[in-house]
Structure formats: C-alpha cells, structure tokens
Amino acid sequence: MDALTQLIRSEIKRQYKSVRKFAIEMEIPPSTLISALNKGIGGTSFDTVVSICEVLGIKTVLSDPPLYLDRDARTILEGYVALDEKGKHAIDTMLQLELMRCGGQSIFGNAAAYGSAVETTVVDVEDQAAAINALRKLRANNGLDKDED
Question: Has this prediction a pTM greater than 0.70?
C-alpha cells in the first residue's frame, strides 16, 4: 500500500474513528472510499484525493518520491524553521542519534556542545555507558559539572 493511502487511512481512524463517518462528512459513498483505501488512493480522481487531504489536514509536497505531511509533521517542521542555529544543531544531532537507535545501529560520532569541545566515542546499542561518560567529560571540560564529583 502506498504512503498516501496509509496516511489517509490512519488519519481517518484518528480523526473520525470510522471510514463510514468520514465518507458521510465528505459526501462520498462509503463503498467508493472503502474501495479507494483497499486498492490504493492512486486510482481515485485527483479532485477527490485533494478534497480528502484538505479535510484531513494533509499537505502534499511534490518531490520524487512525493512527501505527505500530516498536522503533526507540519507542526514539527514549522517549529524547526523557527529555531536559531543552536536549536537546529541540537535537533539535527538528536534526530541522527534516534534514527540510528531505531535502526539498531551502533552509534559512532562526536558529542559536543554547540561550537565547543568534542569528545569522540563508540556506543553499541546495548552499551550506552560510554556515551554517558563522554557527555560527562564534555560537561566537565566546559565547566558545567563543578558541583558533580
């Protein structure tokens, strides 16, 4: 099933609890909507897909492959754009670490405060103690842990 069909299905369940309720709201026969969701929304008329997306608050971004944004994703992106460089750096770093963790990868890289000293470490998914120690060294090198010893 394509990403847009999955997103539409999940948003209908989240916002309307049932396909039938959403179909009534959209003034579309429930059988038409059920068929579109089962076969993939790609076979549905463009105008209908656009209307469905508008009601559900889904924005499409034309790219290859296309990207579909629900309200939560738009809120995150709008917040990111409003950040200063330090905030963007923090989010970029955390996102990279979380993607690696979710992918079951070992984490290798640098831990650093924005524009500050760097400590390098390798952290297996199962062994995060090395990362904690590297962050403690970093904090100590920056004078942030004066009372913690």
Answer: no
